[in-house]
């Protein structure tokens, strides 16, 4: 039986709604956990105080509510675009604009570029209110936002605005370089980026190819260097970042979680288990991460396992 274009259209429409319903179901499970988990888990009583736990719970509740409404808007928007032929309309509009500039529709590359430009502009405009609300209401409410309204665009072209400076000589730099040498990590440069100008969230990453690697620390993370073991371990596995589709995202998440657990175990094998625990706990506190998660939501969404799962995994390797 040969599929018609109408059959394909309805198949795509049904498929994206099935995915949306599935994602909403998972989110509802996690949302329920945020609402009902009112006490610090027994395993974390000695490292996580009730006040921080409650702050994290309320922060994640706000993000969960925001995610539901923004996701619903996005789903309805996508459905309307497909149903009313928004994509072919924009394609034809791109061709007409080029015709007004003296180009015929034979210039498909130019028409494609114009189409992408218009689609990006439309997406940016429709997503702007959600981005503003997330940054200046939710993040502001919980003490993470450090932006002013006129500089929000820096989020989209942050590399042009971030200031990268070499990490000054000192104990931290010496320890990181020594650690890199001990595991034959080809560290060439060590930078600090002023991420605190926009947000108090902390992070660290490395980049580069082959024998020319650079590590970047957010200035909000200068106290902790144990996570560097983990970043270097992930590189030793030669993982490639893949822009996955919805169908592949679960498989990629499973692989990423496996790499994270392997990296934690590797840090422990170097004798940094205690330091890693302390760093993970501090990162979780600083970013108001919630230590509990629904197992199905976590397995589907979290490429980095939640704190409690990682703590338990570290204990199993001891």
Automatic annotation (TrEMBL):
<keyword id="KW-0378">Hydrolase</keyword>
<keyword id="KW-1133">Transmembrane helix</keyword>
<keyword id="KW-0645">Protease</keyword>
<keyword id="KW-0482">Metalloprotease</keyword>
<keyword id="KW-0862">Zinc</keyword>
<dbReference type="InterPro" id="IPR001915">
    <property type="entry name" value="Peptidase_M48"/>
</dbReference>
<feature type="transmembrane region" description="Helical">
    <location>
        <begin position="66"/>
        <end position="89"/>
    </location>
</feature>
<dbReference type="InterPro" id="IPR027057">
    <property type="entry name" value="CAXX_Prtase_1"/>
</dbReference>
<keyword id="KW-0812">Transmembrane</keyword>
<dbReference type="GO" id="GO:0046872">
    <property type="term" value="F:metal ion binding"/>
</dbReference>
<keyword id="KW-0472">Membrane</keyword>
<dbReference type="GO" id="GO:0005789">
    <property type="term" value="C:endoplasmic reticulum membrane"/>
</dbReference>
<keyword id="KW-0479">Metal-binding</keyword>
<protein>
    <recommendedName>
        <fullName>CAAX prenyl protease</fullName>
        <ecNumber>3.4.24.84</ecNumber>
    </recommendedName>
</protein>
<dbReference type="GO" id="GO:0071586">
    <property type="term" value="P:CAAX-box protein processing"/>
</dbReference>
<dbReference type="Pfam" id="PF16491">
    <property type="entry name" value="Peptidase_M48_N"/>
</dbReference>
<feature type="binding site">
    <location>
        <position position="260"/>
    </location>
    <ligand>
        <name>Zn(2+)</name>
    </ligand>
</feature>
<comment type="function">
    <text>Proteolytically removes the C-terminal three residues of farnesylated proteins.</text>
</comment>
<dbReference type="Pfam" id="PF01435">
    <property type="entry name" value="Peptidase_M48"/>
</dbReference>
<comment type="similarity">
    <text>Belongs to the peptidase M48A family.</text>
</comment>
<feature type="domain" description="Peptidase M48">
    <location>
        <begin position="246"/>
        <end position="317"/>
    </location>
</feature>
<feature type="transmembrane region" description="Helical">
    <location>
        <begin position="109"/>
        <end position="133"/>
    </location>
</feature>
<feature type="domain" description="CAAX prenyl protease 1 N-terminal">
    <location>
        <begin position="31"/>
        <end position="156"/>
    </location>
</feature>
<feature type="domain" description="Peptidase M48">
    <location>
        <begin position="167"/>
        <end position="225"/>
    </location>
</feature>
<dbReference type="GO" id="GO:0004222">
    <property type="term" value="F:metalloendopeptidase activity"/>
</dbReference>
<keyword id="KW-0256">Endoplasmic reticulum</keyword>
<dbReference type="InterPro" id="IPR032456">
    <property type="entry name" value="Peptidase_M48_N"/>
</dbReference>
<feature type="transmembrane region" description="Helical">
    <location>
        <begin position="6"/>
        <end position="26"/>
    </location>
</feature>
């Amino acid at each position: 039986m040969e599929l018609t274009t109408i059959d394909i259209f309805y198949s795509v429409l049904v498929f994206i709604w099935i995915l949306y319903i599935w994602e909403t179901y998972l989110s509802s499970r996690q949302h329920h956990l945020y609402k009902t988990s009112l006490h610090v888990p027994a395993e974390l009583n000695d490292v996580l105080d009730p006040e921080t736990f409650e702050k994290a719970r309320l922060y994640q509740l706000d993000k969960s509510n925001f995610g539901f409404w923004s996701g619903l808007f996005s789903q309805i928007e996508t459905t309307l675009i497909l149903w009313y032929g928004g994509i072919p309309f924009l394609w034809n509009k791109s061709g007409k604009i080029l015709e007004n500039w003296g180009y015929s529709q034979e210039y498909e590359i130019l028409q494609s570029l114009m189409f992408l430009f218009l689609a990006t502009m439309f997406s940016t405009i429709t997503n702007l209110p959600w981005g503003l609300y997330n940054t200046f209401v939710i993040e502001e409410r919980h003490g993470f936002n450090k932006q002013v309204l006129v500089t929000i665009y820096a989020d989209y072209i942050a590399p042009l605005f971030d200031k990268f400076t070499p990490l000054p000589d000192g104990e931290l730099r010496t320890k990181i370089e020594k650690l890199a040498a001990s595991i034959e990590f080809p560290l060439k440069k060590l930078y600090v980026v002023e991420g605190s100008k926009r947000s108090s969230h902390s992070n660290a990453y490395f980049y580069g190819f082959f024998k020319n690697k650079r590590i970047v620390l957010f200035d909000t993370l200068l106290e902790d260097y144990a996570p560097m073991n983990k970043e270097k371990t992930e590189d030793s596995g030669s993982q490639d970042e893949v822009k996955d589709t919805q169908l592949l995202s679960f498989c990629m998440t499973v692989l990423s979680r496996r790499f994270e657990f392997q990296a934690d175990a590797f840090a422990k094998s170097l004798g940094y288990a205690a330091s890693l625990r302390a760093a993970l706990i501090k990162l979780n506190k600083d970013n108001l991460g919630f230590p509990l998660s629904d197992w199905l939501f976590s397995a589907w969404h979290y490429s980095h396992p939640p704190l409690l799962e990682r703590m338990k995994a570290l204990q199993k390797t001891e």
